[in-house]
Give the backbone structure.
Amino acid sequence: MRIDPMRIDWLLSVRERLPPFLASLRRGDQPGAYNPCPHGSILAGEQASLGFSCFAKKILDALGLWESLPEGERNAWLEFIRAYQRPDGTFVDPALLAGIARPVPTWRARLKRRLKGQAIPDPITDAILAETKQAIATLAASGQSPRYPYAGFPHDALALENRLKSLDWHHPWSAGAKTAILALFVQSQGPRLPEVDTPLLRQTLIRFLASKADPESGAYFAPPTPPARGQLINGAMKVLNALEWLEEPIHHPERLIDTCLLQGPPPAGCHVVDWIYVLHRAARQTGHRRAEIEGHLVDIMDRIRLHQAADGGFSYLPGQAQSGYYGATISRGLNEGDIHGTCLLTWGLAMCVELLAWDLPGWKPFRA
């Protein structure tokens, strides 16, 4: 696509301004310890650090700046992340978990889920699994592994298939996210566990996801009725992330592109980046509607720019830093950049730059 000097200049300025923004979030002298935002951190945001540390490293990965840090700082940072791992293999940030409320479901809700063979949602367990995935993926980006292999996933094909079937695929955003976690665990931790037949588990995941692929929309869900658009696109993003870890292609990339291009994303960091990610992954498999995709990506940069705060970072919502993280309150939601929004939108910009084939230094998408 034709180079756009105005947007190129802005992207260059983003790469210059983000390191000072990250420096403003540093918590003391410990490499890897970060606050979620410059001024509005409260409650869990003042003490939790595992997720924020992973976000900060991913920002540097997306900008191509991680390797420019001194080796001693990089090693200390990675050890800081590793230090959150417990002997059972999970990564746990006690300060985050202390801020997450654990609601008690009604008996009707418990009965309904039991009849469907679905587990009762537990925000604490979900946060631990998500943070464990995040930490393992962050370490993997530097060719590193956790101290202990994580073994808390099904080790045989039948148990894995039953776990996948128990997820609510009428709501693929959640089901896809949990499947992406399983895919990472199987692919990265399975080979470290002698009792696990990793190739068999990979094929189980691959076959199951193929059964959820909708040839009309290209998305992944339980038939026959497609879910709401947010569930459709965000759920597809999570499944595509699982397929990326499994090193498998998308099933219907052309139809998925058509579905994405029907409507742009809502103005929130996760929606914007999920939309970009789906187009980015699909367009790497097919040239279908490539010129339109490139035009939309250039336009979406202008929407991302609306998230940029005066401090150089990006806020999760336009003009408002992220206030909640896995149900824990982390900030007052001021008009400032936040580390999660900055991570997501920097990643989104890196995917745009790669797909547009703009020759800019440093920018490189990471694997979530």
The two ends are 26 Å apart (CA to CA).
